[in-house]
Write a structure and sequence with these properties.
With 297 residues, this protein is an alpha/beta fold. The protein contains nine helices and 15 strands.
């Protein structure tokens, strides 16, 4: 017989799965137009993608014309710094929050984000009760829906706009078992400049992207899995052909990220590489179809 606490957790989990499933059914009738953005003060002077320094985790801000999308929230230890970074940018509302996958170094900061900001829409991968970030997902679903926001399960082909950026989910391999490889693969584009966000996807996903002939060409690559040697294989880099790469990684981390083999793959191809452990926040401004880079350090 299940204990009361376990039964309560099971009921909540089932309810969350049903809620997200219902949301996906709604997508069938919306032609991939997920939501209408709120009215925003027009500001076309700050169109950028920022890889935020959240230590050994991931958080990426897409900002354009007063609209903001946040991809992942880092871990709980760096949540206050993440919130402060967004406040300094004048952000009060996050139009879209995305979880690439349910690991706590990508979702753990969400509680602080929900305290400090109104989140309009949440996009997240298929839920798994075995993921260590399931609590963060359940918390986000509950608080965002209670405040009138919308929740969507990510599916391949899902698209939306953040100001002048077109953002799309180009792949989501839910048939794979490992949470890293279930990462949403996201692409953003403005003025023909393309950004590819790999979450913690590893070589298995990179090979599937190539086999499925998905367009992964980009100007800026957010390197998968913090620069681990399980990601960023040569064939993938050849096809993606980025000019710049960004690695989100904690200083002196215990995983030895980024791996020397990954750095050599990038260097071999002349890809200019930035790391949050040495550069802090890395901002890619898109102006007149050109990319300008600014680092915190």
């Amino acid at each position: 017989m299940l204990k009361r606490e376990k039964l309560k957790t099971l009921i909540i989990t089932i309810a969350v799965i049903l809620c997200v499933t219902a949301t996906v059914l709604c997508l069938v009738f919306t032609d991939n137009i997920l939501f209408k953005l709120r009215e925003s003060g027009w500001d076309d002077t700050k169109d950028f993608v920022r890889v935020i320094d959240v230590g050994q985790g991931d958080s990426i801000l897409i900002h354009s014309n007063g609209y903001s999308a946040l991809i992942d929230t880092g871990d709980s230890e760096n949540a206050l710094e993440l919130a402060s970074s967004l406040h300094r940018e004048g952000i009060q509302i996050i139009d879209v929050l995305i979880f690439t996958h349910l690991h706590t170094d990508h979702t753990g900061g969400v509680e602080q984000i929900l305290k400090d900001f109104k989140v309009q829409n949440l996009i997240l991968p298929e839920l798994s009760t075995f993921s260590d970030g399931i609590y963060s997902a359940e918390l986000a679903i509950d608080k965002i829906t209670r405040s009138g926001g919308e929740v969507f399960k990510a599916v391949k082909g899902m698209t939306f706009e953040i100001g002048d950026f077109d953002v799309s989910v180009i792949a989501a391999y839910y048939d794979l078992m490992d949470d890293n490889n279930r990462s949403l693969i996201i692409k953003a584009q403005k003025d023909n400049r393309k950004f590819l966000f790999m979450g913690d996807a590893e070589a298995k996903v990179e090979k599937k992207l190539l086999a499925d002939k998905i367009d992964i060409r980009c100007d800026v690559l957010k390197v998968g899995h913090h620069g681990s040697n399980t990601s960023t294989i040569g064939d993938f880099l050849e096809e993606a052909n980025p000019v710049y790469a960004a690695i989100s990684v904690g200083k002196d981390n215990i995983y030895n990220h980024p791996h020397i083999a990954t750095l050599k793959q990038l260097e071999k191809r002349g890809i200019k590489t930035y790391r949050t452990d040495s550069s802090g926040d890395i901002t890619f401004f898109v102006k007149n179809s050109e990319i300008e880079i600014e680092t915190e350090k």
